[in-house]
Structures are given as structure tokens and as C-alpha cells.
């Protein structure tokens, strides 16, 4: 909690960010990311069940997490607006809209189970850890491929925040799974059957997620990061064999190549040309110039 703060944006050269502008693909990706970040306040309604609210550390973290994620959304909205591509009115600002039918069903079931047993909190924490890993990878990948220097700086800061969030979720998940067989059974069921990359039904429909998967992960670095995420989740108690990050994204990429072959091939070629930017370690990536 002592590290919690809104992402620093005052030192960014916003005038330069606006002059450099955004490609159509960059803008499309940022809109998806911003919508996902701006949805976080509604996600809290699912997570903060009666058992979890009794856990001071978890509740305090989630309050800080929600604030930081909403600040991410504001920063991304500002970047879009500065580049002359303002986002539409927030889809969730009046609280009347949430995730799509699939997301609503999962949220309803999750909240119902979570109200019955404290063991389900381990699933929330594991789910959150995987999503924060995916978000960090996505921000880093977009930072590598964009030609907008100041946007790259912003995205790398968001990625650092996501990795910090990931650590809390992951440590909480490991402890909760280690002490409860029921928690392990519930978590394995949820993660192996229902988990999908962050933003599905929130940032956009299935077609948008297929596009984003292709844009950000159809390259060697992307596949390596997905495999790393799978390995990290699989190391948690009861989750041996987890591979949904790689499998779900590969499925999305294949569908996009089938639906939009020309655009998918153009993305793959562009990503290949960005390879020199991926030489730095994932935790300390070099900003795209």
C-alpha cells in the first residue's frame, strides 16, 4: 500500500505525444485497453464478497489496485484524446453496462460461490494474477511496437504497475491454495475451464480480442511471454499443466488470420521488424524510439 500512487504522467511530453500520433492499430488497441481499465470499478462488485472484505490486507490492496487501474484508464483516454482519437463515452460510466453475457454469467456464478465459502478467494487471486501478467505483457508489447516515443514511456510505466499488482495477487493465491484442498479444486475448475485473457466482453467483442491477440502476441516475444505466464500459473498448488494463456491466444490469432488474412499478415510482418526492440529483459524493456 505504501507504494500505491497514480501513474506519473506530468513529466511526459504530451505535445510530442500528440504530434507523433497513433497508427490505426495502436488506437484500436488503446481503446480496448482503456475500456478494460475503466471497467475495474464494476469488477470490485464481484470480488469484494463478505469473506474477502474481512481480510484487511486483501481489501486494502484491492482499494489501491482499483484506484491505480482507473488512473491507467484516464491516462490512456488522455493519450487517445491528445492524438485526436478521443474514446467514445465510457461504456460503464453510468453503471448500467458491464461485461457481455459470458462475463456476466461468470461473475454471477463466482459471486454466488464466493458468498458460500472463503475458499473461493484463492480463485479470485489466481485469476487476478494471470490477468495482471497478461496486462503487463500487452502494455510492454505495444510499447515495443509503437513509433510514439512518449506513448511508449507511458505504456512501460503501466506495465510496471501491473507487475507490482501481479506480485500481490500471486503471493495471495499461493498461500490460499496451499492451505485448502477445496480452494485448489475450485481454482483448478475455474482456471482450466473458464479463464480467458483480460478484457473479453469488456474492451470489445470476440473479434476485437482476436485482433488484439494478433497485434500483441503474434511474434516470438509474445509467444515466449505467454509460455512464461503459463509456467508461473502452473507452479501454483493444484494448477499443474495450466496452458490457457498460450492456447487461448493462439486460438484467437488463428481465427484472426482466417477472418482478416491480409491484415494479420501485415501485423506479423511489422512485428518481425520490431524484433531488435525486444533484446532487453522483459522487466526492463527498452522504449521504442
Report on the structure:
- The chain is mostly helical and 289 residues long.
- Helices cover 68% and strands 0% of the residues.
- The protein is built from twelve helices and no strands.
- Helix 2 packs across helix 9.
- The longest helix is centred in the middle third of the chain and has 30 residues.
- The C terminus is likely disordered.
Please outline what is shown here.
The chain is mostly helical and about 290 residues long. It has helices spanning about 15-20, 25-40, 40-45, 55-80, 100-115, 120-145, 150-180, 180-195, 205-215, 220-235, 245-260, 260-275.
The Rg value, from CA coordinates, equals: 18 Å
Name the shape in a single word. globular
The first-level CATH class is given as: Mainly Alpha
What is the beta-strand fraction? under 5%
Question: What CATH architecture would you give?
Answer: Orthogonal Bundle
Q: Secondary-structure element order, as H and E?
A: HHHHHHHHHHHH
Distance between the termini: 33 Å
Question: What is the CATH topology descriptor?
Answer: Ribonucleotide Reductase, subunit A
DSSP helix fraction = 55-70%
Q: Catalogue the unreliable spans.
A: 281-289
Descriptors:
single chain; 289 residues; mainly alpha; Ribonucleotide Reductase, subunit A; 12 helices; disordered C terminus
